[in-house]
Records
---
Amino acid sequence: MDSRLWRDKLRGELNQKGLPTPYIDRLVEELADHALDLQTEDTSMEAQQAYERLGTTEQLAAAANQEFRRRTFASRYPVLTFVLGPVAFVPAIFIMMLLLAFGIAWIIGSTLELVAGDKLSQIPEQTNAQLEFWILWCFNGYARFIPFALAAWIFCRWGQRTSMRRWALVACGIVAVMAGIVFTKTTPATGNSPGLYMLGLTFNPNLRQLIQILVPLAVGGWFLLRVP
Amino acid sequence: MVQGKSPFMTMKKTNPDFLNGVPELLILRLLGQKPMHGYDLVQAIKVSSGSKLEFGEGCVYPILHRLEAQKYLSSRRELVGGRHRIVYRPTKQGHRRLVESWNTWKQVVEGVTTVLQGGEHGQPAVA
C-alpha cells in the first residue's frame, strides 16, 4: 500500500474512533517516521512491509483508542465521572449560575442607579410592574433550563474528548432527572402585594417539568448524533 | 499494577494475556536507562528481550503518548541522525511508577511460580 494511502486509511480509522486531531497528527507522524526508519535500516524493505511491521491500521486505531481512553481520569473512573459526577456537579453549577445572575442583576441595577438616579423613581408603577414581571420570567427560564443544559453540555464535551459518548449520555440522563425535580413558581406583583418567586425541589409531573427533563436529554442526543 | 488487556501484546497470539501491563514496565525501564525515540525503543525492546516479545511495532506509540499524558514520561523534539524526532524520557513520577510496576511484576511472577511449583508437587484432591 502506498504510504499516503496508508496514512489516510489510518487517519480515517482514528477519526472514526473520535480521537482528537492533534493526537492523530502526532501519532501518524511518529508512525510514518518509524516506517521510514525501518526502510532506512533495511533498504531492501518495501513500504508495504514496513507498514506491516507497524501493525494493521485497524489494530493501530484500536490500540490508540484504548490507550487514549486509559490516560484520562474519566476513562479510569467512568462511574465516578459520569454517574456520581453529575450528582455533585449539577447543584454546584446551579448555585453558581444563580449567583452569577444575581451578580449581573446587581451590577446592572447599581449602574442604572448611578446613571439614571432619580429618573428611576419617575417610572410609572405599571411599567415598573411589567418590567419586574419580564425580569422574573427571564430569570425563571434561566434557572430552570440554562444550568442543566450547561451541565449536560459539559459532560457531553468531556465524553466527546475522551471518546466516552455513551457514558456522557448516562450523565445527561442523570442531569435530566435532576432538572426534572426543580420546581419554580412565579406570582406577579399586584397593587396590594409584592411579587413572589419560589424555587424548590419536587417531583410533580407536568408539561413544564417534562420540558426541563427534555432539554439535557436533547443536548446529549444532539452531541451523540451530530457532533463528530 | 497489572492493567487491562493491552493491544501491544495482542498483536501476536504467542504471548499470554497475563503479560498485560508489561509494555509499560519495559518502556519505563528502557527509557530509564537511556532517553530514546519510538523506533530506538522498539529496537531496544527486541534486543533486550532476545526478540522473544513480538508485537505490532506501531502499538508502542499510543502507550508512549498515554504515559506522557499521565506525566510518567516527558518528550522533546530533538535532532537525531539528521532528523527531528520525538525523544522520550521518564519523569520523577515515571521512575516511581517503574519501581511500583516492577514490584508488582515480581509479586505476580512469584505467585505464578508458587502455583506452578505447587501444582507439580501437590497432591490431587479426592472428591
---
Amino acid sequence: MNADDLARADATAIATAVRTGATTAVAVTEAALARIVQRNPSLNCFTAITAERALATARSVDTRRAAGAEQGPLAGVPFAVKNLFDLQGVVTIAGSRIDAERPPAIADATIVARLVAAGAVPVGALNMDEYAYGFTTENSHYGPVHNPHDLSRVAGGSSGGSAAAVAAGLVPLSLGSDTNGSIRVPASLCGIFGLKPTYGRLSRAGARLFATSLDHVGPFARTVADLAAAYDTMQGPDPRDPVCAERPVEPAAGELRLGASGLRIAVLDGHFAGTGPAAAAVANVANVAKALGASRRVEIPEAARARAAAFVITAAEGGNLHLADLKTRAADFDPMTRDRFLAGALVPAAWVIEAQRFRSWYREQVLALFRDHDILLASATPCPAPLIGQEMIEIDGAMVPARPYLGVYTQPLSFVGLPIVTVPLRDPGPMPIGVQIIAAPWREADALRVAWALERDDVTTAMTIDC
Amino acid sequence: MAERSFDAEAYVDAAAALIGLPIDPAHRPGVAINLERLAQMAALVMEFPLPDEAEPAPVFRP
C-alpha cells in the first residue's frame, strides 16, 4: 500500500494488510501523521498529535507480528479521540481553557484502552465544543473545526473534530460522545458513519462527562464494517462507570451480512416529518425507506416535549457539573457556552424532576412502538452544514437560532437512549446529510445490519474528500 | 404558560444569590435570555399531565 492507498483504506483493510505483512503498522502510522500535519491546518481537527506514542505503539504491533504473536482485530489502525477522552500523558482539555490547566491523564479512558489492546494506534486528540455543549464545534479557545467538504461551513458538533478527521481521510476511525446528538449531527454534516450505542452500553470511564443522565460514547468510521469492528472491541462491563450495563459482549460484526432481512422497518412521522428547509432532508429518508421496501409510517407521541425535557436536564446537569468554576472563573468559559451553563446552574428542581419523570413515561411510549417494529428511520439533521458563524436559520418564514435547531431530530431519541447509526446519503447534493437508523434498546446489531445493507446496495456511502 | 411572563433577570439575581453564584453584570442579560429559553422548554414539560406512578428515570442501586 502506498500513502494514497493508506489514506483511502478503511480500518478493516489496514488491519488485514498489517496482519498479512502487506504493510507495517509503522508505515501506516507515519503516513497518517504526515496527512495530519499537512491537512490539519486548514481543518483544525486536532488539538494534540501524539506522534511519539503512536510510533512506539506501531513499533510494538510490528514487533509482535515479527515474533508470531496473535494480532488484534485493529492491528495498526490509526485512530484519534475527541479531546474529552483521557489519553495517557495528554491533558484532557474537553474543549476548555480551564481544563487545560489540569495535569496530563495518568491512564487511557476505558474504550481507548480497549482499542489499543486490539492493536489500534492513537494518533491524537480532536477539537470539540467546550465541555460538549454545542452542535457546531465553533470553539472560541481553539478555533472552529472546518467542514472538509466546504471549509466555510461547520463540521457539526460537539464531536466536530472527530467527524471531520474521518471525512478528510486523516484517520479511518475516531471516537466521540453524544448527549443530545453530538455523534449523529457531525456524522451527518461530514458525510460519514457514526454509532451512538444504547445508553449504558459502552463505558464512559475516563471521558469528561457533560450531562450524565444522557451521556453516551461511540465511534465514527467510513464503513459500516469498521464501525461494527470498533464497537465490538469497545463493548463490555466496566465497574469504573456506574451507568455502564453489566451485560455480556454482544458482537455485531458477525451479524452484518444478515442485512435488513426479517426486520420490520418504519419511517418516523409527526415531529420528524419536517417542513420548510427540513423537507428536503426528510425526502431523503423516504428514499432510504423505499430502498428498504418500508412503507409504514409511525409516530412517537410527544417527541417535541421529549426534546424540551432533554434540553432542561442537559442544562441543569451541565450547569451543576461546572458550578465550582462558574462561581470563581466564569470569564474563562467559552462565550459560546458560558451563559447557557450559568443559566443551567439556576434551573429549579421542579423542572428537572418533572423532566426525568416525563422521561420514564416517554420511554414506555417508545418501547411500545418497538413491539411492532425493529427499525425506525428519521433524518439525522434538518439541513446540511450551516456556515461558520451563522446565527439564525429560516424555518417556515420565521428566523430561529441555527445551532440548537441542528439537534431537533436527534434529541428526542437519545433522550431514551436508543441505539442509532447515522448513515451518509449517496449523492446528497453539494453538502452531505445523514439518516438515523434507530433500533430498540440493546439492538445495535439491527441498526448496523440495516446500515450495512444500505451500504452494500449503494444507497449510502461515506462522502470523503481530499482537502 | 405562566413561565413565559416571569421576570428572568429578577429570578437570576435571586437564585444566583441562593446558591452563591456571582453573575458578572456583563453576563447577566445573556443568562436571563437563556433562562427564558429554558422556561419555554420547561413549560412544555410542566404542562403535560403525568401519572403519579411515573418515577424519575435514574435508578440508584445501593
---
Amino acid sequence: MNPIDQNPNPIENALKEALRREDAPETLAAKVLMHVAQKSAESQPQHSWLAIFSRPALRWAAFAGVSTCLTLGGIHYRHLQRERVQGEAAKQQLMLALRIAGSKLHMAKEKVNDINAPRPESQPDNRIPRSRS
Amino acid sequence: MTTTIRKLFPIILLLAVPCVLRAQDLKLPPDIESLSAKAKETVEVNMDGPMLRWASKFLSKEDPEEKEAAKLVENLKAIYVRSYEFTEEKAYSAAEVESLRSQFRSPTWSRVVGVRSEHDGENVDVFFRMENEKMAGIVIISAEPKELTFVNIVGPIEVEQLSDLGGEFGIPRLKTKPPSSKPVAKADKGDQK
C-alpha cells in the first residue's frame, strides 16, 4: 500500500489536486504562435527607403543626381522662356507684316472703289478717264 | 571619278537651275534695300516657311484676330515686308519705284490693281502670281509721298481676308477723300496678263 495514498492530511490532498496533470486547451498553441510572431515583428528593425542614404557613396550619388536634375531643369526652363520670348517676337513681326499688307491692300481697294463710285452731277468731273496699262 | 562628274555635271546643273530660280523668286529686289539708308523709319520683316510655322504657333486661338491670322498664314511659304518712312517728300525717285515695279512685269505676274493719284501722290500696285490658275503669291507696292512700302507674300492667300485685316488689326481703316473732292488721277484695274 502506497503511503501517500493513505495520507490522511487534507492539505496534502489539496496540493495533489492542484498540481494534477491537466491537458492544455486546444487554442493555446495557436495563441502562443501568434504571440511569438507579434513579438518577432516588433523586434525586427524598420527597413525604410531612406536607409539607402546611410551609405556615403549613395548619398553623394543622390546629391549629384538631384543637382544635375535641378541644373538641367533650370537650363530647360530658361530655354523654354527664351523660346517663348522669341516666339512672341516672331508673332509680333508676323502680325505687323499682315497689318501692313492688309492696310495697303485695303487702301488699294478703297481707292479703286472711290474711283468707281458715281459722282454727283453738280460737281465737275475732273477725273482723267481710267486707262488700262 | 572626274569623268563621271563631268558626265553628270549637265544633269546636276539642270537640277540646280530650278532650285536657284525658285530661291530667287523668294528674294526681294535688291534696289529696295538701298532705301533704308535714307529712311527715317524702316520696317523689315523676313519670314520664310519654318519661321512662319513657328511664329503661327504662338498665335492665340482665343483671340479672333490672331485666329484669323493663323488661318491666313497656314499655307504661306514666306512673307517679306519693307516699309520706309521718310522725313521729307521725294526721298525716293519715281524711277526707283518704276524699276521695282518692272521686276514684276513678267508672264508669271499679273498686275491686278494699279492706282495712280496725282492729287495725294498715293500710288498702289498689286501684282498676283498665278500657278495653275491658283493664287501663288501677291506683291503690293505702295508709293506715298513720304512712305514706300513693298510687300511680297509667297503662297496661296485669301486676298479679301488679308484686305480685311488692314482695317481690323489695330490699324484704322484708311479713309480716302470723298469722290467730290479733288480729282483722283488714274487707276488701272484688271490688268491681268
---
Amino acid sequence: MRYPSFLQRIADRADVQPVRVLTFSINGVTVSAREDETILTVARQNGISIPTLCHLDGLSERGACRLCIVEIKGSPKLSPACVTLPRQDMEIITHSDRVIDYRRKILELLFTERNHVCSVCVSNGHCDLQALTVELGMTHVHYEYLHPQQMVDASHERFSVDHNRCVLCQRCVRVCDEIEGAHTWDVMGRGHLARVITDLNEPWGESTTCTGCGKCVQVCPTGALSEKGKSVAEMTKKRLFLPYLKLMRGEEEK
Amino acid sequence: MGTKLREIVFDIGGGILEGRKFKAVQTGGPSGGCIPEQFLDMSMDYESLAKVGSIMGSGGLIVMDETSCMVDVAKFFIEFCMSESCGKCVPCRVGTVQIYNVLKRITEGKGKPTDIGLLEELCDLVKNTSLCGLGQTAPNPVLSTLNYFMDEYRAHIDDKVCPAGTCHFNHTEESQ
C-alpha cells in the first residue's frame, strides 16, 4: 500500500481545514480575502459600498435583484457580487459607468412593476427601496408604469401583506424557512405574475404553519409586510435579531 | 451542420409557398434571431449564426415570407419569453414585460418615435443583466429585427402602416 502524501493526510483530517487566502483587486486596490468569501463581503470589509436589495446579512444569497452586479476584467458578462467568489489576481470594478447605469435602470424597472407610492406607505422614510433610489441617484422613472391590480391580505391578527409594495426579493421566504423553520412563505406563479403566498395560497390569518413570530415583517425591505396599527411612515423594521440569532446558533454548533 | 441556409429553405424545405417572396428565417427557437435574405448563403453553424445575431439553439427554423410582419413576429417571441420567465431576477421579469408592451403599442399603431431607442435600451439591459440564459437571449428576436428590418418598425411608427398587412390599426380611434 502506498503511503498517502503529506497534503493528502492534511486534506483527510476533519479537524484541519486549510483555507486559502487569495489576493485580487477591487477598483485598483489590492485586497486579500479567504477563498470562501464573496466579492460583496470583501468589498464591504474594505469600505466599498455595493448596492443590494435581495441580500441580507444572515440569510442565504439569491443573486436575484441584480443590483450588485460588478465588472470583472476579461469577462464579457457582469457578475452579481453577492454570489460570486473571487479568484486569484481577479480585477473587479464595482462602480463603472456601465454598471451604475444598469443598476439605475433595474431600479426603475422595479418601480414600474408594482404600485410603489411612498407618500402613503407605512415604510416611507425607512424603506430599503427608497434608500436605494437616493443612493443610486434615481430621480425619474422613464419606463411606463404597469399599474397591476394587486391584493392586500390583512387576515392575520397582527400583520398585513400589501402585494402592491412587494419587490419579490424573497427575504420573507428565506427568513421563514432558514431561521424560523416554518416555511410559511413561498412564491406562486412565474414571471410578472409571481407573488409571495402563505401556505398553499391561503389567507395569512388562516395559516396553520405561521408561528406569528413576525420575522418576515422585520426583514421585508419595503412596506409590503407591516405590523397592523402603523400609519404612514411609522413602520420601522427591527433587524438586529438576525445577526444575533446567527451568532448564537453558530456558538451552539461549536 | 454546415449546410447553406438557402439549401435548407429552398431545396430541402421546398421553398416559399405560392411563389411569394422570402423575407426572413428565424433560427434556434423563440430566443434566436431573425436572419434576412442577404445572409442566406451562410452556412448553418454555431459561429456563423452568432455572427449575425442569432443562435443555433434547438436547431429549429421558422421561415417567413412577405406576409409576415417582423414587428409582430418580434412581439410574438417576446410574449413567449415573458410568460416563460420564472420571475426570480428583476431585468427578465419586468424587462420582458416592458419590451412586450412597447412592441404591442407599435403593432397597434400607437408607437412613438422614441420607442426605437427605448426598445434598444431595454434589450441591452435585459440581455446584459439577467441571471440565466432565458433573459440573456430573450431580446434576440427584437434586436435582430431592429437591426435588419428597421424600415418595418419605421413604417409602423411614422406612417402607421404595416407593410405586411398583418397589423390592423384602428384609424378612427387614432383621429379622435
